[in-house]
């Protein structure tokens, strides 16, 4: 492109080096901002006309042309190629081609610096709202599964070792709580996204009597930026979106990890539908849980985008620097990745079947009721430390004889302490172990039912 065709070409004598021109251009990825760019331009145009900076007739001509350009871009009439530096330049050139010199007035009172800051805020606001909706879809799938499997007892784990009996529903609702925090984070961050930077111009504001509050109202922003230098150089809201996304992906990855483990023959706790799995090119028997594995795997790229932008931002002096162009690709890929993973995880959960019989068998093997045995002994008058020691010795005794605790005779148990009576066997029944934990936040059936009811209320509000 000739220098004279650049929006900033008046000060330059030499044509821009072709390699640097390609290196400098961002249209190949920032074309995704065309809708936001035109939306912001329409609001800016209306304000310019209202303030008398351009005539109302000029404003009408510009606005009609911008709407036409948007329709054309939606139809794919424009090629987002190397012929333009960025989406802002492309829209402006298209406008001038349609309406002539009057189109050159649109950029009055603004810079690409505040223009791109506006576009990205609009993009992040829309993306966060979509992500919040998709998180809710995953939460609804978790609650549906919890309701469906309220009678299923499963082993709870620490260190990936069987630890205590729990309700499967309680386990599923743990992920509901993680997703609840994720939704709250995105919703909370929207308050900081929804600040309108337009009117900051390059860095110092504008000499024109811009009505920034009007533009903010037109675009649905809660407030205007307070400092023009901060407004054009701020990407905290992008970083916050990336951080929120990284935490969300960590939660999805943990859930994906458990689904992968539980789908293995070693566990055999879940059965994934064929439609969500793949096979092997060499081993005919294989049914691979690729979908949850990919959710787990894609977490790393979201982490990487967060670290990449943090690194980009850490050394930037005020105000705008070209380094800030590096905010878009990490943001766009994160949005795509998170939305895709949430949609896939909702499908996985809705299609998953649980092997309740296998879970129950796992609960009955491995001395998961040992803690309840210790609690029983405390109720018989022992200190907890003594009860813990005694229960541990009983577990070791049972292990050496290939028995579970519930299979020891009363005489065998009394050899450890005369405090044990016939009533001990009810304490060694996994169903009773779960049922006794009816405290707020516990795995008891009554508490889990209340948690499901509460979750339903939250999702419907």
State the domain count: 3
Helix content: 55-70%
Q: Output the radius of gyration.
A: 31 Å
At CATH level 3, the topology of the largest domain is Fumarase C, Chain A, domain 2
The major beta sheet can be summarized as: 2 strands, antiparallel
Shape: elongated
General description of the model:
By secondary structure, this protein is mainly alpha-helical. It has three domains: 3-108, Fumarase C, Chain B, domain 1 (Orthogonal Bundle); 113-203 and 226-361, Fumarase/aspartase (Central domain) (Fumarase C, Chain A, domain 2); 370-428, Ribonucleotide Reductase Protein R1, domain 1. Helices cover 61% and strands 5% of the residues. The protein contains 19 helices and six strands. The strands form three sheets. It has a two-stranded antiparallel ribbon. A two-stranded parallel sheet has the order 3-4. A two-stranded antiparallel ribbon has the order 5-6. The longest helix is centred in the first third of the chain and has 37 residues, at 112-148.
Topology diagram in text:
Layout: H1 18-24, H2 27-30, H3 34-50, H4 56-75, H5 87-99, H6 112-148, E1 153-158, E2 161-167, H7 168-193, E3 195-196, H8 212-219, E4 223-224, H9 228-233, H10 236-263, E5 270-271, H11 290-313, H12 328-351, E6 353-354, H13 356-364, H14 370-379, H15 384-400, H16 410-414, H17 424-427, H18 430-435, H19 445-460
Parallel strand pairs: 3-4
Antiparallel strand pairs: 1-2, 5-6
Helix pairs in contact: 3-4, 3-6, 3-8, 4-5, 6-7, 6-12, 6-19, 7-10, 7-19, 10-11, 10-12, 11-12, 14-15
């Amino acid at each position: 492109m000739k220098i004279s065709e650049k929006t900033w070409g008046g000060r330059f004598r030499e044509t821009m080096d072709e390699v640097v021109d390609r290196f400098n251009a961002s249209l190949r990825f920032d074309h995704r901002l065309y809708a936001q760019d035109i939306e912001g331009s329409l609001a800016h145009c209306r304000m310019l006309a209202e303030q008398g900076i351009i005539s109302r007739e000029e404003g009408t001509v510009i606005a009609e042309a911008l709407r036409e350009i948007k329709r054309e871009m939606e139809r794919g009439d424009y090629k987002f190629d190397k012929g333009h530096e960025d989406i802002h330049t492309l829209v402006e050139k298209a406008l001038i081609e349609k309406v002539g010199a009057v189109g050159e007035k649109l950029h009055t009172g603004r810079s690409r610096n505040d223009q791109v800051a506006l576009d990205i805020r609009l993009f992040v606001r829309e993306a966060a709202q979509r992500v919040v909706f998709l998180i809710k879809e995953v939460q609804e799938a978790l609650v549906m599964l919890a309701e469906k499997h309220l009678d299923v007892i499963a082993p709870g784990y620490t260190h990936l070792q069987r630890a205590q009996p729990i309700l499967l529903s309680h386990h599923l609702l743990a992920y509901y709580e993680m997703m609840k925090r994720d939704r709250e984070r995105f919703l909370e961050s929207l308050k900081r996204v929804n600040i309108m930077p337009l009117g900051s111009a390059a860095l110092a504001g504008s000499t024109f009597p811009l009505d920034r509050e009007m533009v903010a109202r037109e675009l649905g922003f809660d407030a205007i930026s307070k400092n023009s230098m901060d407004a054009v150089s701020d990407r905290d809201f992008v970083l916050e979106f990336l951080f929120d996304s990284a935490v969300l992906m960590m939660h999805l990855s943990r859930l994906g990890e458990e689904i992968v483990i539980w789908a293995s023959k070693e566990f055999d706790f879940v059965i994934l539908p064929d439609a969500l799995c793949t096979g092997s090119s060499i081993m005919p028997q294989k049914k691979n849980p690729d979908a949850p594995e990919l959710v787990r795997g894609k977490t790393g790229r979201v982490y990487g985008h967060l670290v990449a932008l943090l690194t980009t931002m850490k050394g930037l002096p005020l105000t705008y620097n070209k380094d800030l162009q590096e905010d878009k690709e990490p943001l766009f890929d994160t949005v795509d990745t998170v939305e895709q993973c949430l949609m896939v995880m909702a499908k996985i959960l809705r299609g998953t079947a649980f092997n309740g019989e296998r879970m129950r068998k796992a609960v009955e093997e491995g001395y998961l009721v040992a803690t309840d045995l210790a609690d029983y002994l405390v109720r018989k008058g022992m200190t907890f430390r003594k009860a813990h020691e005694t229960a541990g010795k009983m577990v070791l005794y049972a292990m050496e004889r290939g028995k579970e605790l519930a299979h020891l005779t009363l005489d065998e148990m009394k050899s450890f302490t005369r405090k044990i009576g016939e009533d001990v066997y009810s304490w060694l029944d996994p169903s009773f172990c779960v049922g006794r934990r009816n405290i707020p936040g516990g795995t008891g059936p009554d508490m889990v039912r209340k948690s499901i009811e509460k979750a339903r209320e939250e999702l419907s509000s």
